[in-house]
Amino acid sequence: MSQIVKTILLSGTTAFIAFSLIQFSDQTFEASIRGLSIWWEVVFPSLLPFFITAELLISFGVVKFIGVLFEPIMRPLFNIPGVGSFGWIMGMASGYPTGAKIASRLREEKQLTQIEAERLVSFTNASSPLFIFAAVSVGFFHDTKLGILLAACHYISNAFVGICMRFYGKNKEKQDMMRREVRGRVSIVKAFKDMHETRLMDNRPLGEILGDAVLHSVKTLVMVGGFIILFSVLTKLFFLTGISTFISVFFQHILQLFSMSPEFGLPLLSGLFEITIGAQSISGITSDTLLTKAILVSFILGFNGLSVQAQVASILAKTDIRFAPYFFARILHGMIAAILTIVLYKPLYLNKQAFDSDHIAVSQAVHENIWNMVLEKIITYGPIITIISLGISIIIIAIRLNAAK
After folding, report:
1. Backbone dihedral angles phi then psi of residue 96, each to the nearest 5 degrees
2. Residue 390: inside a domain
3. What pLDDT is stored for residue 228 in this prediction?
4. In terms of residue numbers, what domain contains 299?
5. Could you tell me the end-to-end alpha-carbon distance of the chain, in angstroms, rounded to an integer?
6. 317 near 285, Cβ under 8 Å?
7. How confident is the model at residue 180 (pLDDT cuts 50, 70, 90)?
8. Which of 48, 130, 268, 386 has the smallest number of Cβ neighbours within 10 A?
9. pTM score over 0.90
10. Does residue 80 contact residue 103 with C-beta atoms inside 8 Å?
């Protein structure tokens, strides 16, 4: 009976979306173009170098080297092997869904158990500094000092989530005694030895390793682009059909319980679907304080948005890593980030603003110019990088198909 209901629900939803696409074809086309532009100009060129580098570092054993050195830190804090430090750092530097990509690769390489991989995924999918400072603080709020507050709350709460998730699956997981013994025998010599052994275990020639790194990275980013376009269209459809307005009434009542303006109901709902749209909508509300806006933006940054969560779910689907722990961690991350925003708003924003009052115009202009310049460079050269990368991938596939004949 449940399967019949599921079939009716899925088919009915798909039919409704198809009908809405036909009815609002012009608006949905604009939404799809917007999603494609974001992926084409920013997401693909900014994430591709990180993805390829991660693939190569894993193949050459460098991640294993890092893992041995960071074992004494990662195991006590997060109850995961030292290799998890690579995913954590890369996830913060490049943004989502890099953390999920690296965790899935480490799981495929058997460097993590299922439980350890689920712990790692739960706190390695963070917003990149480029997005927080350039897009949100400068682009939407025109205030670089707000970026300092948002970034501090986002990354500190991310670490808290990792510490909380260290207890996840502890009763089910059987600890390896050999792994426990490694903690006390960490050395550079052993790290180098493990790195060398890992590289020797990969029998692929250098050209094949490079080709696989490019193909795997491009394939993942094409999937990411599909989800960005899909959720851009869905968000627009929900707004056009009135579904967003209907659901936002529920969020308005919740916001009123916390003494927040009900005007944030629709922007908050949009942010739960797609972060960029939500943050931009929240920044445009003028009926409440900046603190309220910062709290809501911190929450949706930690929640990741359903668009990013769908990307992560697709990456994890190829492994035995379950999605539920990641989803729970997203709610936890959003809540902790919102609370930290309240706590740190005065010391990191108001006090800093008063301290820098004599130089605020000059320093803020300099910081805004730097972040704007970085974003403009990516947007300018991003499409070229995307075209070249896709062309290289097609050439590699063609060469391998000819070699297989």
Report:
1. -70, 150
2. yes
3. 87
4. 42-404
5. 48
6. no
7. very low
8. 130
9. no
10. no
- Whether the predicted pLDDT of 156 surpasses 90: yes
Distance CA 108, CA 88 (A): 17
Task: Read off the tokens for 252.
Answer: 């308005």
Sign of the alpha-carbon dihedral angle for 278, 345, 372, 44: negative
pLDDT tens by residue, 125-155? 889 888 898 888 888 888 888 999 999 999 9
Number of residues written out for the chain: 405
Query: The tokens of 335 are what?
Result: 């809540």
**Do residues 224 and 43 make contact, with C-beta atoms less than 8 angstroms apart?**
yes
User: What is the total count of domains within the chain?
Assistant: 1
Residues 364 and 89: their CA atoms lie apart, in Å, by: 27
Which residues, 6 or more positions from 42, have their beta carbon under 8 angstroms from its beta carbon?
A: 375, 378, 379, 382
Does 3 reside within a domain?
Answer: no
pLDDT tens sequence across 261-298: 889 999 999 899 889 888 888 988 887 789 999 999 99
